[in-house]
Write a structure and sequence with these properties.
Length: about 170
């Protein structure tokens, strides 16, 4: 006797042999299910992915903290240089021009103090918010900074190579 035909779901042409067999099923984070070893492999992959992601974030945070410390130290030195220069400008040109330099140094100092007082995570969140609010400004700023850094690097390389040319030969 022939088996009774059951209606197939819409869009299905035929029954695939073995499709109705079930093994050990595990539910994935997307709501689907996988069977046996494939599910275990998928779980191990995502566990490893989370570990690597956490390590990357921790390493980026360490570098950001180190960079923040170096930046604030460099700004402290720059502020000191501006204040020293302001004293010399007072003596040579007049106190009005020295005051301009002091105001600039005060503005940089207030920015530097604000930077010192913030946690690296707060800086990340502020940067993320700024990029979300004004992506064009963020891209333009990144491009400008990249251009400036490339020019400074090229100038440093050019200076190193020209000093070799200018040196007297033995």
């Amino acid at each position: 006797m022939a088996a009774a035909e059951t209606p197939l779901p819409e869009g299905t042409d035929h029954i695939i042999n073995g499709a109705s067999e079930t093994g050990e099923e595990t539910t994935t984070s997307t709501g689907g299910s996988t069977t046996g070893e494939a599910g275990a492999t998928r779980g191990a992959f995502f566990e490893r992915f989370d570990e690597v992601k956490t390590q990357g974030y921790d390493r980026a945070r360490e570098y950001a903290l180190l960079s923040k410390d170096k930046t604030t130290g460099a700004l402290d030195e720059f502020i000191r240089l501006i204040n020293d220069a302001a004293g010399q400008v007072d003596a040579k040109v007049g106190s009005q021009y020295g005051d301009y330099a002091r105001r600039a140094a005060d503005g940089i100092a207030s920015f530097n103090d604000a930077l010192k007082g913030k946690d690296v995570d707060d800086l990340f969140h502020e940067a993320r918010d700024m990029v979300a609010k004004a992506p064009a400004v963020a891209v333009g700023t990144a491009a400008a900074l990249g251009f400036i850094i490339a020019r400074l690097a090229r100038a440093g390389v050019d200076t190193g190579s020209t000093s070799d040319k200018d040196a007297p030969s033995a």
